[in-house]
Write a structure and sequence with these properties.
The structure holds two protein chains of two kinds. Chain A is mostly helical. Chain A contains nine helices and two strands. Chain A has a single domain, classed as Serine Threonine Protein Phosphatase 5, Tetratricopeptide repeat. Chain A has helices at 4-20, 22-29, 37-51, 60-74, 79-93, 102-120, 130-142, 147-164, 188-204, and strands spanning 2-3, 99-100. A two-stranded antiparallel ribbon of chain A has the order 1-2. Chain A is globular, with a radius of gyration of 16 Å. Chain B has a four-stranded parallel sheet, sandwiched between helices. Chain B has helices at 11-24, 45-55, 69-80, 93-105, 110-122; strands spanning 3-8, 30-34, 61-65, 86-88. The chains are: A mainly alpha, B alpha/beta. Chains A and B meet through α5 of A and α3 of B.
């Protein structure tokens, strides 16, 4: 499925899509959060992009661990430890590998989901990134066909998950202080996850 | 003495709380880890790491924190630390910092300070 060159290219693409959507993500965070999701993610993924040239010769585990550590060190908001943990857990599942299969990718995403649940003491239905991550993972586990088709199914489920966060009342994160006023809003973290997944899906489409 | 670290999204909150606690216990080892390196609002892994390291002695370190990423980032810092007993203690940051400072300054051990903070957190500030 994927070589190290694919992985580096995808991570570059992730920085690109986060930079493009920086203002959009921050706008989503304004009514229900602290208006920094886009700014924080853009800072973190730019720092990741700056490190990529030095990682081209490394294995997938080392690359993803570096990505995770960089996000933890530079994001500055809750998405730092959450995405940082996600990438660091995925790194463990990809340890030593220089080629990744679909099964590897699903194992990495599975580990990432568990990491986010642990770090955020959270689960689905709480208007968080998990409401995009978990449906995506489940859809891809259930899907069959080519890599492109499986990723497309995952992306569609993630995007539907983002839409579903509008019907939730936040019980985790800054939005939880708003109680019922969080209803009707699309979760910024779920949105950024769907954006990141769209880069992977597009790469293999 | 037990070290004390105050983690906040705001540099001013962390430093101001430290200042307030030091007024009652000038010799207490307290470090502030607030905000981002550029002065903005947020929590910074390295700042928290450095703050813990700066007050880490043989008696351990107590970390007090505000919310969200202050908790998660501190947990990740603690995961990366070795050989020091570091405990995150829940409670109102300002009152807990004062209690921790005066307790540490008189040589109370980690368990004693944790208990003192928990007591303080449960004591109403308004008596009526």
């Amino acid at each position: 499925m994927a070589t190290i060159a694919d992985l580096i290219s995808i991570l570059e693409g992730m920085n690109g899509i986060i930079q493009e959507n920086k203002d959009f993500l921050t706008q989503l965070d304004m009514p229900i959060g602290d208006s920094d999701h886009g700014i924080n993610m853009a800072r973190g993924f730019q720092a990741v992009a700056d490190k990529l040239p030095s990682l081209a010769e490394k294995d997938a585990g080392t690359i993803l661990k570096t990505v995770g550590m960089t996000l933890v060190s530079t994001v500055g908001g809750a998405s730092g430890p959450l995405y940082g943990t996600a990438f660091m857990k995925a790194a463990v599942a990809a340890n030593g590998k220089t080629e990744l299969t679909m099964a590897d990718f699903l194992a990495m995403l599975d580990a990432a989901v568990e990491g986010v649940k642990f770090r955020g003491k959270s689960t689905t239905g709480e208007q968080t990134m998990l409401d995009a991550m978990v449906p995506a993972l489940e859809a891809m586990k259930a899907a069959s066909g080519s890599v492109g088709e499986i990723l497309a199914a995952g992306l569609a489920a993630a995007q539907a998950g983002v839409e579903n966060t509008k019907g939730m009342i936040a019980t985790k994160g800054r939005a939880s202080y708003l109680g019922e006023r969080s209803l009707g809003h699309q979760d910024p973290g779920a949105t950024s996850f769907a954006l990141l997944l769209s880069v992977i899906a597009k790469h293999f489409a | 003495m037990v070290g004390i670290v105050i983690v906040s999204h705001s540099q001013k909150i962390a430093e101001g709380t430290r200042e307030l606690a030091l007024q009652m216990a000038p010799e207490a080892p307290i470090a502030a880890a607030g905000g981002l390196p550029d002065g903005g609002i947020g929590t910074d892994f390295q700042r928290i790491y450095d703050a813990i390291e700066s007050v880490a002695g043989t008696d351990g370190v107590i970390v007090l924190f505000d919310m969200g990423s202050a908790i998660m980032t501190t947990e990740m810092v603690i995961d990366s630390f070795e050989g020091t007993d570091i405990r995150m203690v829940d409670g109102p940051v300002v009152e807990s910092s004062v209690v921790a400072a005066v307790s540490s300054a008189v040589g109370m051990d980690m368990d004693g300070i944790v208990e003192a903070i928990r007591d303080a957190a449960q004591t109403p500030k308004l008596s009526s």
